[in-house]
Amino acid sequence: MSAQVGGATTVSGRAFVKIAERVAAEDERLAGTPRVTAELAGGAAVVHVDLEVRYPAPVPSVAGDLRERLRHRVSRLTGVPVVNVDIDVVRLVPVGGDSR
């Protein structure tokens, strides 16, 4: 998952995305598994998340909470600052509905 190089720990892009997916999936207001992509460059990351929200959860609140959680927790867990989080809500799923 990580390698020691010249006294610094590095996290692969794949490991970074897996960690971000786990952090994103912790929100019970989401349906299905969030799809995360990330660009790591210059020691920082930009994250993009496609997610499904359980209706009637308030979309702005869900997105804002997720954005802050990803910025703080993923940065802390990986050592890579998350400078931007783009979120696309791709589907609203009625409570009790199937995510597919």
Helix content estimate? 25-40%
CATH homology superfamily name: Cation efflux protein, cytoplasmic domain
Order of helices and strands: EEHEEHE
How is the CATH topology named? Answer: Alpha-Beta Plaits
- CATH class call: Alpha Beta
**Termini, distance in Å?**
31 Å
Question: What would your notes on this structure say?
Answer:
InterPro entries: Asp23. Belongs to the asp23 family. It comes from Thermobispora bispora (strain ATCC 19993 / DSM 43833 / CBS 139.67 / JCM 10125 / KCTC 9307 / NBRC 14880 / R51). The protein has helices at residues 13-24, 59-78, and strands at residues 2-5, 8-11, 30-41, 44-55, 82-94. The protein is of the alpha+beta class and 100 residues long. It has one domain (13-94): Alpha-Beta Plaits, CATH 3.30.70. Helix 1 packs across helix 2 (59-78). It is elongated, with a radius of gyration of 14 Å.
